[in-house]
Design goal:
Helices cover 16% and strands 32% of the residues. It is built from 4 helices and 13 strands. A hairpin with a 2-residue loop joins strand 3 and strand 4. The termini are far apart.
Length: 254
């Protein structure tokens, strides 16, 4: 009798474990597909310091300057996306200038100021987003000038009502190459974005590859998830709030 009871209990535990494993697998969507396919994301480059400047109309020697020139590449989707930060000084260098040139027109000084590059999407239902990230920066001063993380808000960064939070994932005092894994709970219809900040748009770009992107629905609510503490209260001014508007003397003293 005792052996029969033991076999029944063990059988029930094995069956329960199988059900739990099956449920966990079926609740997860993999990669940049469906509501998170490449065409659902939008790229935005801007500067908290100069939000109203249409820099597509500014020229040097009659050569038009591009807007803040961060980019996103979905070539390897659905497996990964690559986010590249802005580096306006590359354009100036092609024209024979630098951010420290004494004859640089005052009208384009904003090109050497703070900006951020965000690729964002509207999350259709309350979910946990998880992903791996691999970060590198070509800036000789390291990641302090090019932080990477994610932003959450109720309005897209293109909206004048944009608000939200920025959670930094890299260690700004760490090496030029870093990697990690992150999870974040996002409410239905909330804006989520991967973001690279640029302190002064010179010295080299930062690049982050996002892979192993997974979406797990938690509607109805699931167990709480631990996420990194946000480092700024306002996403649209995240880079300024992080204290990244470092002086030119710090750059020139490298």
């Amino acid at each position: 009798m005792a052996n029969a009871i033991l076999r029944t209990v063990i059988g029930a535990l094995v069956a329960s474990t199988a059900v739990i494993g099956s449920a966990a697998q079926s609740a997860t969507a993999q990669g940049f597909t469906g509501s998170f396919a490449p065409e659902q994301w939008e790229l935005f480059n801007s500067s908290p310091a100069f939000p109203n400047i249409d820099n597509s109309q500014i020229t040097i020697n009659n050569i038009p300057l591009a807007p803040f020139n961060g980019s996103v590449d979905f070539t390897n989707a659905p497996d990964s996306l690559t986010l590249v930060g802005s580096n306006q000084s590359a354009i100036l260098e092609q024209l024979g200038f630098s951010c420290n040139s004494p004859d640089l027109p005052v009208s384009v000084l904003f090109l050497c100021d703070t900006s951020f590059t965000t690729v964002f999407v509207t999350v259709p239902e309350t979910s946990i987003l998880s992903f791996d990230w691999d970060y590198t920066t070509a800036d000789s001063l390291g990641p302090a000038f090019d932080p990477f993380g994610f932003a959450l808000g109720n309005f897209p960064p293109t909206d004048p009502n944009a608000d939200g939070s920025f959670t930094e994932l890299i260690d700004r005092s760490g090496s030029s190459q870093q990697s990690g894994t992150a999870s974040v709970e996002v409410a239905a219809n909330q804006i989520f974005g991967f973001q690279i900040g640029t302190a002064d748009n010179q010295g080299g770009r930062a690049t982050t590859i996002i892979s192993q992107f997974q979406v797990r629905s938690i509607d109805p609510p699931d167990e709480p998830v631990s996420v990194p503490e946000p480092t700024s209260a306002v996403a649209i001014a995240a880079i300024t709030g992080l204290g990244l508007r470092l002086s030119k003397t710090a750059r020139s003293g490298k």
